[in-house]
Amino acid sequence: MQTLLRGGRVIDPGTGFDGIADVLMSDGVVSAVAAGLDAPPGCAVVDVTGLVVGPGFVDLHSHVHSIAGQRLQAMDGVTTALDLEAGLMPIGRAYAEAAADGRPLHYGFSASWGGARAQVLAGIQPDAQIGSGLAVLGNRAWQRSSTDRELAEWLALIEGELSAGALGIGVLLGYAPHSEPAEFLAVARLAAKAGVPTYTHVRELVEVDPGTPADGSEEIVIAAAETGAAMHHCHVNSTSGHHIDRVLGALDGSRRSGSRVTVEAYPYGAGSTAIGAAFLDAEHLRMKGLSPSSVVMLESGERIADEGRLRQLRNSDPGAPCILEFLDEGNPRELAMLHQALAFPDAIVASDAMPVIWPDGSNDSTEWPLPPGGTTHPRTAGTFTKTLRVMVRESGAWDWPEAFRRCAHLPARVLDEVAPGARAKGHLGVGADADIVVLDPVAITDCATYFGPTRPSVGVRHLFVGGVPVVSAGELQVDALPGQPLRGEPR
Prior knowledge:
Low-confidence stretches: none
Number of strands: 21
Helix content: 25-40%
Number of helices: 14
Shape: globular
């Protein structure tokens, strides 16, 4: 199978190439990039004049494990969607079920720190499902510190997951905020020994919670320096909030000193999680300068009126998804903080995409367009296109080569050591995977909102996953399920 993309503006962040050229895809890889290529016999030719051609976006932080959610991400320019912050456990089951169902996009998972702790500390057997994982977040039994024996047990479980192909270790430290800091150092040492990254939702900052056992930003800096592990800081925008200057300064200093710390951000002032999360109790909200009315239930749209209602919801259904408004995008000062996180040198764009949930409780659909009633955070459908609109089209903070570097090349490089297959992603060199997005630089934009119908982005004209068209002429191809697993090398 061969396809020739003719006459587009081709951007390869791997080599720095930016010019008018043709791209030939053959049997799932890029076989030629040059001006005036001849189309081989039987080759499909797609005229992409006036469009921008680049490597498909690699999302390091997606909790979407369904055809429906991945289709929304495809319309957002994503070709590889990985759940690395939380991970799934057991990893073998997660990969097997994704392969059995089929996926439009490439997929992969980290070893779940939370799942391993839940199994050892609370006797909860992980089932490789995002829904049950959200429900566990509100269970306090796994959030405590471990005994020496328990620590050894769950570290051994993580080692087993790495041997089974996990893409590093996902650490939801912010959901067990008072666990012993020495345990996080033990995870970092394991990661360094195994040669895999960690992906951490850090615990609270000291400005927010003076009683925290360790400051969230300093803890990851210290662990990276002491162990030499490659450590990825998830969604720095949402965990830093109004203290983004101080956090980015600490991370910049860490990198300048030689530590291997990477950073990601998304372009929204509200996040999404389970209502039972530790940092959504009334006391923690007050510490953040927020209130129960900063929390909105995703499925019903209910804005929580007071602390009594918050306690009721947290107790009755701790896994219920909600939205937390942490920055006001209508406030120019707070919007500037959000953009500051994206503009931070080498910050990676990552979505933190959430499942699409319908009123009957299901979280998947093979229908397209999506049936009515589905709800999710807009970042599921619009993170990358909104970032391109804001950072390239509107502000000019990035040019197109820089945008592809942040959305495709840099995230793929985070995975180079743990997954050799990642080395063929995030660039358009000959031999690269034919994971390619073709976008309209004028029309590209997000359409999703916090409430109302879940609407896909527009402006992605073509999307190829392993050379197979998943989006053609702006239309999703409903029969296309070419996604393949990205696995770590056994450790």
